[in-house]
Amino acid sequence: MDEARHERIRAAVAAIPEGQVATYGDVAAEAGERSARLVGRVLREDGADLPWHRVLRADGSSAPQILDEQHARLRGEGVEIRDGKVVLAHHRAASGWLS
DNA sequence: CAGGTGACCCCAG
DNA sequence: CCTGGGGCCACCT
Predict the structure, then answer these.
(1) Which nucleotides of strand C come closer than 7 angstroms to any CB of the protein?
(2) Which nucleotide minimizes the distance between its C1' and the CA of A58?
(3) A40 beta carbon < 7 A from strand B?
(4) How does DSSP classify residue A53?
(5) Which domains does chain A have, with CATH numbers?
(6) Who's near A97: CB < 8 A, 6+ residues apart?
(7) What is the mean pLDDT of each run of 10 residues along chain A (99 residues)?
(8) Nucleotide with smallest C1' distance to residue A6 CA
(9) Angle, vertex CA A89, rays to CA A46 and CA A71, nearest 5
């Protein structure tokens, strides 16, 4: 079922450790997907119950509509944000965090 | 069937 | 810093 892929993406996001983050591309790779866009779409429609705030763009920025909420939550976990972007170098989860 | 649209990514100017 | 162009994928007109 197509539901399986959808599910793997959610699993990858759910497994990102607190205080750490990952890019949409990272999640896609971790879930065995080729499209980062798909990850964004999944989170948009059913990310409510997931730690979606730990997923960022490749440069550490975020889409304007979720920026406030995302930054607030991340700060709460001690994640550093500079110039509107998360400092990926310090908080990016190591690839294979799911396996 | 043909475009348009994103919580996207990457590279060249 | 910004713009363009190519890829990507599911969904809606």
Answers:
(1) 7-11
(2) B9
(3) yes
(4) G
(5) 3-91 (1.10.10.10)
(6) A15, A16, A17, A20, A22, A30
(7) 90 98 98 97 96 98 96 97 96 96
(8) C10
(9) 45
